[in-house]
Design goal:
single chain; 113 residues; alpha+beta; 3-stranded antiparallel β-sheet; 3 strands; globular
């Protein structure tokens, strides 16, 4: 797995939680929103997305409900109160991580020598 893939995999949960904080969405819609909003950077394969959604649901972070809209049956995922709490915790941790990483990289010019 490439470095880029590892970073994207590590951020999948917080990205999904962030999207679902706006409104319930079905799996394909989540994948499309991730890709569209990141200009293709967060392209998510089904093999990562659906197991992550199921794991998050089993952990109580998400609820789901089947809906039929325009003749199509889709499973919509929504944040639970616990999911919203987890989003806050993960967002804070990601912000701290990014601040520390950026400070460290600014302090070291090893890649330009």
């Amino acid at each position: 797995m490439s470095f880029r893939d590892q970073i994207r995999k590590g951020s999948t949960e917080v990205l999904i939680l962030t999207l679902l904080a706006e409104r319930p969405m079905y799996g394909y819609e989540i994948a499309q929103q991730l890709e569209d909003r990141s200009n293709g950077y967060f392209e998510t394969k089904e093999g990562l997305l659906y197991p992550t959604l199921h794991r998050m649901q089993q952990s109580g972070w998400l609820s789901s409900q089947w809906q039929t809209i325009e003749g199509r049956r889709r499973k919509y995922y929504a944040l639970t109160p616990l999911g919203r709490e987890i989003l806050g915790e993960q967002a804070a941790e990601w912000n701290t991580f990014l601040e520390k990483l950026q400070a460290f990289l600014r302090a070291k010019d090893l890649w330009t020598e």
